[in-house]
């Protein structure tokens, strides 16, 4: 579904334009209805889901037991913080100020297509992450079977 990396700029109102190359796909798979929420695993990153995919993720996360703190934390970061957005006529979506502040996403960012969702990274967080290498001790059995 989604793939590719694009440098993007947020405007003074906290809006980011979906790249032209992705707009048609966004319209097709989501009817221009998206959900923005935190990436619970990586600082400096927001996830942007097509609404239908979001509903699947939301239901899975909400089905987790509320007894475990880690489950409640994931529910808070994903479901509690979720914001529905729709691209305007120029393909821009409004990012919630609280999410921008919490992730440190400011003027310059990077939008990544990651199969079922888009990831929006603050520029510095993206640089730090992309510069990390995967060490041999981190390679899983599934990764070892890849034919790269």
TrEMBL record:
PROSITE patterns: SPOVT_ABRB. It is found in: Cytoplasm, Nucleoid. The keyword Cytoplasm applies. Coiled coil: none annotated. Keywords: Cytoplasm, DNA-binding, Repeat, Transcription, Transcription regulation. The keyword Transmembrane does not apply. InterPro entries: MraZ, MraZ_C, MraZ_dom, MraZ_N, MraZ_sf, SpoVT-AbrB_dom, SpoVT-AbrB_sf. Pfam families: MraZ (PF02381). Transmembrane segments: none annotated. Residues 5-53, 82-125 form the SpoVT-AbrB domain. Forms oligomers. HAMAP family: MraZ (MF_01008). Belongs to the MraZ family. This is Transcriptional regulator MraZ. It comes from Dokdonella soli.
């Amino acid at each position: 579904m989604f793939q590719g990396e694009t440098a993007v700029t947020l405007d003074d109102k906290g809006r980011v334009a979906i790249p032209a190359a992705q707009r048609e796909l966004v319209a097709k798979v989501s009817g221009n209805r998206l959900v923005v929420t935190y990436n619970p695993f990586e600082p400096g990153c927001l996830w942007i889901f097509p609404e239908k995919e979001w509903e699947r993720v939301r239901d899975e996360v909400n089905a987790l037991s509320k007894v475990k703190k880690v489950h409640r934390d994931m529910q808070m970061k994903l479901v509690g913080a979720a914001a529905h957005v729709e691209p305007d006529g120029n393909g821009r979506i409004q990012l919630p100020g609280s999410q921008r502040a919490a992730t440190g996403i400011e003027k310059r960012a990077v939008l990544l297509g990651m199969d079922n969702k888009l990831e929006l990274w603050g520029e510095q967080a993206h640089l730090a992450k992309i510069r990390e290498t995967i060490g041999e001790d981190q390679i899983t059995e599934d990764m070892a079977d890849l034919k790269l």
